[in-house]
Structures are given as structure tokens and as C-alpha cells.
């Protein structure tokens, strides 16, 4: 019976839906995390009576045909790149992006990663790095006797050192934008990679036209809404249950058929 297969595709689709939702909930406190949304498509149809087919020699046609669908499939897990709320941390090296753009990170294999996670640190040489020790582009190295660090909204990094009362500029943070930022490839560790779907990065300084600004001593939180995620989870659970009931109903019908005498 076709209903068994159709309902099984529905159960599998809702299982994937729950997996996507559970990952969003698990990352509610992940800095810079962007939630995902499961998107579905119906599968092929079998035409038992084709719409528009001829019904007589005089040229009359079928206004509404008979099509039987074959179920559903997961088409995409679209990433929602909306702005997350920002939270004060009182840490000088924490930087949040308010608006468009990604920090550029030099990965050990030579590739460039992109992130919204601005929880930066200094390594043993005084270079600005991520929590995993990856260099933040362009490389900025702080003197050993750095006292105060100031990161402006347009990305200029200034410090005061030793007993000096004057500031010196160490470098300029930049941001990268993409035509299709949802097309970036998430590789974990709060990092994305450029893909053919995302387009090539367009790099500029913060606060330039179309680019976001930086907030020192703030971090961007995940853009996950707990209430909507829980409601999505309940809806997926109910859809899963209804598909399982279809399988039970189809099984009972088959059982009744086999018991006919």
C-alpha cells in the first residue's frame, strides 16, 4: 500500500526537522550562532487522470485531473542570518558586529574562515587570535606593555603602553560581506567558509556604506528565539505522530484485506 511509503517519508522529514530544531536550541548561548530552518518539498506525482487530457472527439478536456503524491523530502536547511542581540561583557578584546559583515580568520590550512564570534584573545606573541588560536586578519600584534586597548566603531585599534599617556594605532580591523551570506559553508567552531553559492568576499572597513559597525566589550548572541523553537518542536512532534497514525491505519486496512474470506 502506497500510504505506508508516503507516511514514512513524512516521519523521516519530521525527524530531520526535530534535529534542526534541537541544534538551534543547543546553540542558544553560542556566540554569533545563526539558526537554521528546515525547508521541505513534495515528491513526484503519479497521474491517474491527466489534467487537460481530451475527453471527447468534440475537444472537451479534463478540468481537474487525478494526481497521487509520493510524499515529502527535506530540500534545504536554510540559515537565517538576522542580527542577534548584543550583550555587554566588560572585556576589552570582545567585539560585536552590529550590522553586516564577518571577521576574517586565518585557518591553519591556509584557508580564510569567516565568523561573527568576536570573543578574541592574545597569544604568547601578543597577536590577536580567536579562542582556538587562529589569527584574526589583518594580523594585529600588541606590545608587551599594553595598558589600555580601544577598538573604535570603524575598527581602528589603538593602545596606550607603559607609562605613556598618548595612544598609538596598531592596525585596522576589516569586515567581509557576501552577496549570499546564507550560502556560506558552516564548518563548526563558529566558522564559515566561502562557497560558489555565497559569492566572493567583499572586504572593507567597518562603518563603510553597507557594512556594520563594531562594539567593543560586547558580544553578539545567537539569533535563536526559544519560544518559536519550542513551538516548532511541538508542531514537528505532532506531524510525526499523525504520520505514524497513517502507517497504523494502513496496516489495519492491509490486515483487514488479508483476513477476507
Distance between the termini: 20 Å
Across the major sheet, the strand order is 8-7-11
Helix content: 10-25%
Largest sheet: 3 strands, antiparallel
SSE order, one letter for each helix or strand: HEEEEEEEEEEEEEEEEEEEEH
Number of domains: 2
Number of strands: 20
Helix/strand-derived class? alpha+beta
Count up the helices: 2
What does this structure look like?
Residues 96-159 form the Flagellar hook protein FlgE/F/G-like D1 domain. It is found in: Bacterial flagellum basal body. Residues 4-34 form the Flagellar basal body rod protein N-terminal domain. Belongs to the flagella basal body rod proteins family. It holds the Pfam family Flg_bb_rod. It is a single chain. This protein is of the alpha+beta class. The chain has two domains: 2-81 and 225-258, no CATH class; 86-220, no CATH class. Helices cover 22% and strands 31% of the residues. It has helices at 2-26, 226-258, and strands at 36-42, 45-49, 66-69, 72-79, 86-88, 95-98, 103-106, 112-115, 121-122, 128-129, 135-136, 146-151, 156-161, 168-172, 175-177, 185-188, 191-193, 202-204, 213-216, 218-220. Strands 8-7-11 form a three-stranded antiparallel sheet, with no helix packed on it. The chain has a three-stranded antiparallel sheet with strand order 12-13-14, with no helix packed on it. A hairpin with a 5-residue loop joins strand 7 (103-106) and strand 8 (112-115). Helix 1 (2-26) runs antiparallel to helix 2 (226-258). The longest helix has 33 residues, at 226-258. The two termini are 20 Å apart.
